[in-house]
Known about the structure:
It contains seven helices and no strands. The chain is mostly helical. It is elongated, with a radius of gyration of 22 Å.
Amino acid sequence: MFRLRLKEIRELNSLSQQALADAIGEPQSSIGGWESGRCFPRYTTFVRIADFFRVSLDYLAGRTDVRTIAKNIPLDLSLNDHERMVIRRYRELSGVEQAMICKQLDLPRSDKA
């Protein structure tokens, strides 16, 4: 899938293989090899390609069709036991009680709650 995605995104950006090679510091023969599926770039080069086109590694690898990179997502999405308990208890509150908590914390009230 990488070979197809690379060629597609290169062509969408109106770049020749040589222009892409020059931009990422690789020989044109490498671009040709990747697009033909004969070889695959090193990880650091794979990342450089994603950064150059401003797409995710998952998009280049064919794991998602979403090209854009998510921004402002915390790296640690795990919750400790106390945080899980707070969320669980918050969800058990009435809408009025949730609104009071949000006001106390100076947070906007979510319409989805």
